Fold these 2 entries.
Entry 1:
Amino acid sequence: DAKTTQPPSMDCAEGRAANLPCNHSTISGNEYVYWYRQIHSQGPQYIIHGLKNNETNEMASLIITEDRKSSTLILPHATLRDTAVYYCIVRASDYKLSFGAGTTVTVRA
Amino acid sequence: EAQVTQNPRYLITVTGKKLTVTCSQNMNHEYMSWYRQDPGLGLRQIYYSMNVEVTDKGDVPEGYKVSRKEKRNFPLILESPSPNQTSLYFCASSLGLLGAYTEAFFGQGTRLTVV
């Protein structure tokens, strides 16, 4: 599985969009990009995933560059409840999620 | 409601006393796994199971055992716990369709302290 690089932390103002970058320059053609988040010490929660195209769901949008070497998770209107550690993961098989250090996002009022 | 249930949520035990952390899912998922989370080391996979009676080691299997006798249950067994197994443990499950993405669902975690 490809390795990912994320900034260790970022702040965001409540109500504004939060843009979380992720670099995955060694990603292979069959590897998906997944995003999970972990609020405090709860179990990780799935957010969104994609292969090539941009994706949007009720939680977030995922923008993947054309060369697929990087992506951005967008939380359109961040709330205090979005404060969490966000993990960007790339993988081909379904059998393992390799979590890195993630990005600690703090949403401030 | 789709969920993964772990028990107990909190456990303090003594070195060498065998314990079992249970994990059950109600989504008929094929794939289940166990992770441990430690400060500075992130989430690391301990064991996984692709289906009933099929289990395999993850990244940090030493000191742990698992079994998968039924599809819904995947207990984590510590035969002789040691203080270095003090950690936050998570069970996860997913459909496990090879080649297709499936969302992983995580339990609420078990905080284990071995003294």
Entry 2:
Amino acid sequence: ILNVEQSPQSLHVQEGDSTIFTCSFPSSNFYALHWYRWETAKSPEALFVMTLNGDEKKKGRISATLNTKEGYSYLYIKGSQPEDSATYLCASHTGTASKLTFGTGTRLQVTL
Amino acid sequence: AAGVIQSPRHLIKEKRETATLKCYPIPRHDTVYWYQQGPGQDPQFLISFYEKMQSDKGSIPDRFSAQQFSDYHSELNMSSLELGDSALYFCASSLGSAGGYNEQFFGPGTRLTVL
């Protein structure tokens, strides 16, 4: 894989459902993987930064895992709430470059 | 807590005009990044600065230039604007050296519209 790819592109769930998003990234020269939450008309909010293979991070109902050998990360939201509605971006940090390479995001909509 | 400040928030320009976007990083952050997000597209990295020196360069057109000043704020100068330059321009800041994976904090963005 050459670019950062995210799936699904969009997701519409009911309140209380659990969701999983996938981020695939180039595994060569991997440095770090970032997850951001981006609400409309607001700036992206950092959720997690992960660097080590097997890393697992959790913040409330949101958690993420990282597999650097196969180049993927999962973001889980347990018991989705309407306030979770946002676009979830992942971005990879490769080599020694300071830039982030973003995926296209997964747009989540949670309804009552 | 103080966040990244960008100004202006909205800017409308005509083709071939120039525009200057400003970014004020979180206090004590020494690294600034610029990203461009076109309509329906993912953010694309333009350029970054660490300690007032360019640290990384992405898909920034030659018509654009940027710099980081002694107070660590940064300006993105865009000349000979084209319709395709219409986009949301994000600035992010972080604390740490170039090459690190330091967490980047994003500003609210400047929406540039070129008519």
